[in-house]
Amino acid sequence: MNPVTSLVNLSTSALELVLQHDAQHLSLNRYGGAGQSWLNDGAEGELFAATIDGQRYTNRTLAFDGIETDYSTAGVQHVIARFSEARFVVEHHLKVYQDTALTECWQVIRCTGDSAIEVTRLDSFTLDIPAGTYSLFHYTTDWGSEFEPVHRRLAGDMTLETRYGRSSKGQHPWFALTEQGGAVLSGSVAWSGNWVFRFEPLENGAYRLSGGLHDWEFSKSLAPNDAIETPIVVLVLGQDLNAVSRQYARVGRQYWYPRTTLSATAPVEWNHWWSYEDDHISEAVFRENVTVAQSMGVEICMLDAGWFGPSDAGSFWYDYRGDWDQINTERFPRGLRPLSDYTHAHGMKFGLWCEIEALGVKARLAETHPELVAQRDGERLGYICFGNPETQEFAYQTLARLIRETNLDWIKLDFNLDPGAGCNRSDHGHGVGDGLYAHYMGYYQTLNRIRQDFPEVTLESCSSGGLRIDLGLLRYTDMTFLSDPDYPVHDLQLFWGASTMLAPDSILHWSFSDWINKNPPPQQNFNPRDPNLRPHQFDYYTRISMLNVFGFSQKLPELPAWVESRLSHHTRIYKQYVRRFVREADVYRLTEQPRRDGSGDRWSAFQYRLPDQSENLLFVFRLPGGEASRLIRLDDLQPDRLYRLVGFEGEDMGARYGKDLMQNGVLFDTLPEEGSALLRVL
């Protein structure tokens, strides 16, 4: 007699997703969207895999114990399927979001036997896709070269990974797989440490996709009743890359990204760093900038590194990270609270940089609290291990004290090192093989505690610029910083790449900064006092930063009058018109990705469409080397609606029907190189 089979239909208007089970087993029955099936015919329907005590287990090999669906969050189906073996149980979690083809999956594994089990590999998802011709798109990343595109044909065994201990060092935790007809399957690991995606060929041209937490140097011993939760993997289907990106952004805004009253506005930020760094900042300098910032419409002033450590005007910030109880009174003789009060008195918010995880080579913290120090094989790793509950408490108390004493509205959380495989001390509460996992779980818990106790303090994530950008950390921080350099073509390459996974209001980056750094990238050469600087160039530099949360790092009191006036003008436009789109709109990339080496597209255009379709915003940039004219075709307009195209500098390009704008486009043939246009389409 055949066992009775039941179907669990989790499909949405954009997704076909069906599970099937009998009394003993559960498997994936159908998975697809946009007219494309992404499940190989004849596949066993694996959903996840775990290697425990040297043996591989999946939903197909474990006993199926039952399934339930939680509808407590509006618009979300949260399915929990339970499996068991004699020594452990597995909860498989699957979330499906209404009107999208976006899903999340992860597992919780608990030891139920009388002795410990050893977990050495955890694949949060596995999926067998049909035979076909596929193009794999992903990004490599490093300092100053984030979101470098890689396109290659899927062939043989392929692996995307990082082993640096930071999610977007080496490679970005995201991929997009495009089949011959154009449909896209994208995946992202919501995890800040080491991760992996594997693409393994099967018989007859099919492929097995799997991934999640990296198994390199990983092991976790689970004592009886202990459990481990795997990182979430997000999967998205769409008819093209823009469709996939919009789903990431919509779900992120509605369900993932935390918000304060301040961050929800997408505020205008001034940060002192690149124009002063640590050795040129002081209370007097900061106050002078605050005064000018107020007149320019800035909303948050950020004191970056340089405020802590010994009272020595020449002390180097990097060496003393960890000594957050010390204020450099040579630079800030009255401490930090007077600066905060001065900024607040001028009607703006005050923020502070703090690399709470880090441990500088000269920091006293290593001697006063040796129990916090992360080590591997007895060698210091340059950070404090959040796998140790004492570290979590130290970090929480430090941040809470800074918030209270300084009346902070914003904390910029940096992380300027590679933990590698992480801490393997045996006295932190974690094992020798799960120190990095425990660190990030502890870090997330600490940030969550800060958010609960200080719900109106905005948290910004940064890591040597953009080397820890992931959908895990962005569930605890309001936004992420994209990169240290901010020269124009770099900015455009970054935003194009970041927008494939992130909403604009989760991204912060500055306009072309005036660096005093002695070793800047060659293209990082902006000088606002350059007599050859032209208004159209400055507009181009500034509008690029308005694609996301807008900010700048300049010596404000030293700006030429016309530059200050023009920057104030753009700030007003951003606040009055643009930031509503940054906060709410769907983004359409209308051109291909430009590249910082001079290759790629030499025009860049982005369309922002409000959810109610009442208005669109069009950004157009002609890069150096761009052809003299470009036809830009808009997307997803109402074909029979008459749209007006008007700019903020008096431009009026007339009225045209949506069908015409989508089919025939808008010709831009008057922009110079480093020229730009910002148009309302309404």
Describe the structure.
With 682 residues, the chain is of the alpha+beta class. Among the domains are: 6-242, Distorted Sandwich (Beta-galactosidase, Chain A, domain 5); 589-681, Immunoglobulin-like (Sandwich), CATH 2.60.40. 20% of the residues lie in helices and 33% in strands. The chain is built from eleven helices and 40 strands. The strands form seven sheets. Strands 7, 8, 9, 10, 12, 13, 15, 16, 17, 21 and 22 form an eleven-stranded antiparallel sheet that branches. It has an eight-stranded parallel barrel with strand order 23-24-25-28-29-30-31-32. Strands 5, 6, 11, 14, 18, 19 and 20 form a seven-stranded antiparallel sheet that branches. The longest helix is centred in the last third of the chain and has 24 residues, at 561-584. The chain starts with 5 loop residues before the first strand and ends with a strand. 51% of the residues are buried. The model has no long low-confidence stretch (mean pLDDT 98).
